């Protein structure tokens, strides 16, 4: 219903919905909301990345992280934490090392 109403333009509300779907493991629903959002921010991306990471879909988390970077969004401690978890779970040591280097640069 939210996708069809004016609420779809409320980024904060949609971010909460993304987080809820991720915590419930409803990643298809989260992705549908995400894809229909006219405006996305760092929280939007991080919410879905976290959902993927926590539910064993590490490859999707990494792909969405790379998309987030292409949108010129700068990761914060929450997005770094989620994507590093995805790298650890998937065994992607190369990306994990690159992320670790980025975290060190930001400190």
UniProtKB/TrEMBL annotation:
<dbReference type="InterPro" id="IPR011990">
    <property type="entry name" value="TPR-like_helical_dom_sf"/>
</dbReference>
<dbReference type="GO" id="GO:0003723">
    <property type="term" value="F:RNA binding"/>
</dbReference>
<keyword id="KW-0677">Repeat</keyword>
<dbReference type="Pfam" id="PF13041">
    <property type="entry name" value="PPR_2"/>
</dbReference>
<dbReference type="InterPro" id="IPR046960">
    <property type="entry name" value="PPR_At4g14850-like_plant"/>
</dbReference>
<protein>
    <submittedName>
        <fullName>Pentatricopeptide repeat-containing protein, mitochondrial</fullName>
    </submittedName>
</protein>
<dbReference type="InterPro" id="IPR002885">
    <property type="entry name" value="PPR_rpt"/>
</dbReference>
<feature type="repeat" description="PPR">
    <location>
        <begin position="41"/>
        <end position="75"/>
    </location>
</feature>
<dbReference type="GO" id="GO:0009451">
    <property type="term" value="P:RNA modification"/>
</dbReference>
